[in-house]
Amino acid sequence: MPKDETSTSNYTGPIPDPDILTAKEFWEGTQNQNLVLPKCKSCKEFFFYPRIICPKKGCHKTDIIWEVASGKGYLYTFAIQHVAIDGWKEKLPFVTAFIDTDEKVRMLSVLKNVDASQPQSIIIGSRVEVKFEYVNDDISIPYWEIINDK
What we know:
It contains one helix and seven strands, in the order H-E-E-E-E-E-E-E.
C-alpha cells in the first residue's frame, strides 16, 4: 500500500530500532500501513507486545504467526502529557492512550487529532482506528484516531 500523504510529517520523536527476533513483522507491516500482530497458532489468541512465546495463561507455546489486524478498536483510557523529553517536547501537550483492539489486544500509543487542552472532549470507549506516520523508508509509527464507526 502506498504511503498516505496525509500521515507524512516531520517526525521528531524517537525512532525505534526493530528487534529482528521479535518485532520485524510488526515494523514491516507499518511500512505498508498495516497493523500486524503476533498470534499463537495453538490457542489462536493475538497478543502484544511482540515476543517469541505466547503469554496467554496455560499456553506459553512458541508457534507464533503474524496476521494483519483490523486496525480498529476502542479507547480504554488516556492521559494528557505535559512533560516530555527529546523530540516529544515540541508536541506538548499530547495524548497517550491505551487502545483495546478488536482482536482483544491492549496497546499503548499516541492518540492524535484530539484537543489535549480539552480532555473532557475525549470520550473513553470511543471507536478508534490506527493510522501511520511516515518517518523514513524503513519506519512508520502507528498512532490512533477517534472515528465515528459504530
